Amino acid sequence: MLDIQSMILSQRVIALKRFIEDYNSPWTGVLETFLGEIGGKSILCCNFDTRKLPIYLPDFYKECLDAWSAVSTSSVVTYDDVVNQTIWNNKFILIENKSC
Predict the structure, then answer these.
(1) Please, what is the Cα angle at 18 between 53 and 5, to 5 degrees?
(2) SS3 state of residue 98
(3) Rounded Cα gap, residues 65 and 76, in angstroms
(4) How far apart are CA 52 and CA 55, in angstroms?
(5) Dist CA 59 CA 75 (whole Å)
(6) What pTM does this model have?
């Protein structure tokens, strides 16, 4: 049997994968409403931290975004890695301790 935490993490990531693929369901509209102020689906291309986003997110969506961030984050090692990061919603670029 798989580790239960790994199963939960994978289900959270799958939910956001469906969100990206224009999966038709009422919950995707709700998530789009919450993420609308910070770029909608484009947030998933950013190096974000949910604690620093300037919006309110329900716990489930926050867990999904945290799981996505944990899986998709690459380490920044070289200058090119820093230059190629998205500026918006970057957890390292903050204004008043919130991402811009």
Answers:
(1) 70
(2) strand
(3) 20
(4) 9
(5) 26
(6) 0.77
